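Listing S7. Sequence submitted for prediction.
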Amino acid sequence: MDIIVNACYYNIFFLLLFFRLLDGHSTLIIGQDVQCEKEGEEVKVKSISDNPCFTCKCQKGVVVCEQQICPYAKGCYFLAFGESRSCCDVCLSCYHEGVSHNSGSEWINSKNSCLTYSCQSGIITESTIHCQTSCRHPIPPEPNECCPRCQGCQINGINYTDGQTVPSDSSDPCLTCSCQKGNVVCKKKACPVLPCPQTKFVHKPNSCCPECRGARKISDFKDKCLIGLDIHKNGDSFVYDQCTQCSCNMSTTFCKRQVCPPLECPPSYQIKEPEQCCPYCQRPEERKTVCRSGGQIYQNGQHWQNGCSNCYCLQGKVRCSVEFCKTSNKCPAGQKLVHLPKKCCPVCVEDDGVCTVFGDPHYRTFDGRTFNFQGTCKYTLINDCAHKRFTVQVANEARYSKMFSWTKSIILKIDDTKLVLGQYRNIKIGKKRVRLPYIKLGTLSVVEQNYTVTVRTNLGIRLNWDGNSYLEVFVPSHFKSQLCGLCGNYNDNPEDDFTTKKGKLVSSPEVFGNSWAVGRGKKCLISKSLQTTHAACESNLNTKVKAIYECNVLKSDLFRPCHSTVNAMPYYRSCVMDMCECPVGRKCHCESLFAYAQHCKRLGIQLNWRKDSGCEGSHCPKGSVYRSCVYPCRKTCKNYQRAKPCRRKCRPGCECAEGTVWYRNKCIPTQLCPV
């Protein structure tokens, strides 16, 4: 049989005398005493000093080794080992507000005597004491005490002294009464959250709280919290049960637990619903009745949802439980977080498709194909080919040369409404100009912010227009494979985006673009080939050098944070093309830089690029200049002679140059103002 060592001291012999447990049998090795000189000095003995449970010292000229006896870890479930070189396993403690607490300890909040804490193997349970009084006129609690008291400690003719437990009329084993300072105090505390799984719970007869059976050794517990069979990371919050909300911090689980009030009815009449924290008394004579909530009548047992609450009718009473949403508010790439109708928690859904038009002009389809098309007609940009619910058209013009075109206006047709977005953010409904904000209930809304016009429709279509040449169109994902036009068919396949109006797949951007021309009786310039455009740029060396110099900023550190996410080369080629016949004084390269920055912004990458790229103020209307401090009170032909100061705070923006004022969407000299 095995020999269990309980002795504290052993003499060390020349060949060592010790007990070795080997394959369940004991081995005894006998030798001679080991001599020593310095009394009381710790001696390192080979094979024994390596064991942290033994300490060897010199006593009366002989080396004597003492074995450490480990205490019995009663009530401890998680035993930590491997943290340091120690003999005994250590019970996992709790860390709260800069103080470490041993497992099994309890303490009271220094500012609120009704708030109690307990530590159970790395789990802190916070609960508020529930006070109970059986007398009519209880004595208020003294300072630093929680519960009121009933006078006297004589119960049923028996006198109880301070500290003794007093019998209670309640059948709740968790309600305890005691004699304190000659008076009876009754209180109920919540049971602590246990570290073991429920299969290890042991509930002794007439006891209030269960206990853990057995123990478990753990070694790797840093930066995580253990509770039952679950592992939580630092910073996680989670629901333990209907009464308890927990969080993990510094490897300690902190749980706030609700205390249920004592019930006057016997346990056989107590009902505990699965979705509720506390039981309640149900009298057998009560009859099933209906429930009324929010003006509606619900039958007994009927369930319904009220916002974030799941409710049901039980014996004429409405019972509701709150739905807890996950704390994470991030979605995978290509998805966004939205609140769906009649849903409590937000969910991740596929992101909207985006088609952009920029520069002279360049197009990036819903499926990500970028191409150049310089036609100067009116074209179908997006059309709901499946259900004909809406269409978006673009009208282009040869603004600066006969070789290049720019977006002049956008036409949105939805239901019986025709919206026109013109240059300098002129907005028309039909042929009538309107002021912003404009709202047509059930159809669309138009607002202006930061020099951008935003259109939102009841179909979920959204347009952003800068009033010059940049356009973004956002379309919900349920329109996939239902669209056609210059923005493609939105089917996640860029290879078939060049499908003409007649359904033919082509490879030429010119053939594809011209097939979507609309309008009758008006002649327009058909775009020339890109080879002609490139040849015009190649023939002028100075123009080419300037184009490369201005557009190389896309490859610089200003845009580097986005390079690994968005390919800059399509925007770089568009930028060089825009610079081929860029008029003097224009910053044509800024159109492509802005389009690339917007693409990055939609993916969550914010770039600070305008100032260092020389594009600050490039979006300002004709004749205006960009300044870091512009007063919102715009000077016009009607008010520029008034001396009344602007009382609103300045902000970065565009304003007319000195000696000019705003008139009909442009800045003009004051002497040209109409009388």
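Caption to Listing S7: primary sequence and predicted structure tokens for the chain studied. The helical segments are 509-514, 530-538, 541-551, 560-563, 569-578, 589-602, 610-613. The radius of gyration is 40 Å.
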